[in-house]
Amino acid sequence: MFKRDPNRIYPTETESRAIIRFQDCDPLQHLNNSKYFDYYFNAREDQVAKLYDFNPGQLFREFKTSWVVYQHQIAYVRPALVSEWVRIMSRVIFYNDDTLVTEFYMTDDAKSHLKNVLWMTSKYVSVETGKRISHHPAVMELLATILVPNVDFVSLNFNDRIRHIKHQLQPVASI
Predict the structure, then answer these.
(1) Which CATH number fits domain 13-166: 3.30.559.10, 2.130.10.120, 3.40.50.880, 3.10.129.10?
(2) Is the separation of the CB atoms in 115 and 107 below 8 Å?
(3) Average of pLDDT values for 97-110?
(4) pTM score above 0.90
(5) pLDDT in tens, 120-164
(6) Which of 14, 94, 102, 175 has the fewest C-beta atoms under 10 angstroms from its C-beta?
């Protein structure tokens, strides 16, 4: 389980590289809409294990708790294409006593073009009762450590956030 090391700096944004697989694409060679979730969830699981020494399976085994997806909000901005290398970023933009919002976004490999944005809202539950419960103190410590600062999620509009992410990306100059 996560134990904060006061001598270590924990990144608030994680990043992975992936190649879009043929088997995950539609006849137009675009990543199938439902497959974005697989790419995001697999990347996030790998990222948090590596960067934070955290495994969601530990919640289940040690605390008999887990997160369950409550809501998704997703925007398909540009298609991810077969055999294309992409960057997958994820970050926690909100949490409270029993809720977690993770923001995912995908860009081209150069990080110049936004392809997709996903907000995933999860609820923390007891796996024994299936009911919502308060985050365990160790989980709260992890979330406090990795939360992206200065994001006013309660007032945030999804489309405005997409524009903000696009603005942060640097388009590659054409020759």
Answers:
(1) 3.10.129.10
(2) yes
(3) 98
(4) yes
(5) 999 999 999 999 999 999 999 999 999 999 999 999 999 999 999
(6) 175
CA distance 47 to 55: 10
Tokens describing residue 65: 């708790």
Between CA 49 and CA 28 the distance in angstroms is 34
Per-residue CA distances from 124 to 17, 67, 142 (Å): 28, 4, 14
Q: What is the C-alpha separation between 96 and 90, in angstroms, rounded?
A: 18
Spatial strand order in the sheet of 114-126: 13-19, 85-95, 99-108, 114-126, 65-76
Q: What is the DSSP string of 111-160?
A: S-SEEEEEEEEEEEEETTT--B-PPPHHHHHHHHHHBPTT--GGG--HHH
Contact predicate 121/99, CB 8 Å: yes
Q: Measuring CA to CA, how many Å separate 153 from each of 34, 50, 61, 125, 161? A: 25, 26, 31, 22, 10
- Domain extent listing, the chain: 13-166
Structure tokens belonging to residue 53: 């020494």
